[in-house]
Amino acid sequence: MSSTVGDEQILRQADALTSCGAQLVMAAAEKEARSHGWLVTIAIADAGGNPLLVKRMDGAFAASFQIAVEKARTAAMFEKKTGALEAMANVKDGESRTALLSAPFVLMCGGLPITSKGSTLGSIGVSGVAPDQDEMIASAGVTAITRILSSKL
């Protein structure tokens, strides 16, 4: 069976984050949070921003659940750190800020895409502590899976 019509390709194969991969990211992120005594919610999403795994640690504030899920969704859909999107929204000209703030995305540090070979596989979103701490936790999760993926190439 051909995956082309004329000269145009109609299918592409893409790597995807699995539930096992999501658990690995979660474990590393949770370990980082616990090492500092931080109570957070951690959300792992697929490349489309759909949740694969979410954990609200005991004692994490209730709103952190939805915020973490939305940070993960935003990072996946834009294929960018949510902190970078926050910086874009905080420009002085007003135009970028208005455009980004009118969309249903969370533009705060703590959401990171998970990438390999130039493709977004999924994302992680963390909420519950200061923005730079949320991102530190998310980064621990991304680093853990990136190390494994790098060793397999």
UniProtKB/TrEMBL annotation:
Coiled coil spans: none
Q: Which domain of life is it from?
A: Eukaryota
Question: What Pfam families is this protein classified in?
Answer: HbpS-like
Q: What is this protein called?
A: Heme-binding protein
Q: What is the lineage of its organism?
A: Eukaryota, Sar, Stramenopiles, Ochrophyta, Bacillariophyta
